[in-house]
Design a protein that fits this description.
By secondary structure, the protein is an all-alpha fold. 67% of the residues lie in helices and 0% in strands. The chain is built from four helices and no strands. Helix 1 runs parallel beside helix 3 and helix 2 runs antiparallel to helix 3. It is elongated.
Length: 107
């Protein structure tokens, strides 16, 4: 029973990861400029949903092959999200407070 369950999970992972292996859907530095902002947002939403699905999986029930496949998929997702968020600027709250204080002191 455990072997058939493991085999079924492996099959589902292979089928699920094949959708992410499609190069036409993947966000890369070369094709990010060709896509509209809505397409990029939709792709990011799909990737975040997949990450949530992976978080809900139980790693105890997986064998080492499945864990490696999940790890590789997460690396690919991380690369795509990094490309998607490349143009954004993130400022922490502490940095924002320091900037405001410096502006107050200077003016």
């Amino acid at each position: 029973m455990k072997y058939s369950k493991s085999l079924l999970i492996t099959f589902l992972l292979i089928c699920g990861t094949s959708s992410f292996a499609n190069d036409s859907d993947a966000l890369t530095k070369e094709n990010i400029n060709k896509r509209s902002e809505n397409e990029v947002k939709a792709r990011v939403e799909i990737l975040m949903n997949r990450v949530d699905q992976i978080k809900t999986m139980d790693p105890i029930e997986m064998d080492s092959f499945e864990k490696a496949a999940i790890k590789d998929e997460l690396k690919d997702i991380k690369k795509e999200l990094k490309v998607a968020h490349n143009g954004t600027l993130t400022i922490s709250v502490g940095a924002a407070i320091i900037i405001v204080l410096l502006l107050i002191i200077l003016f």
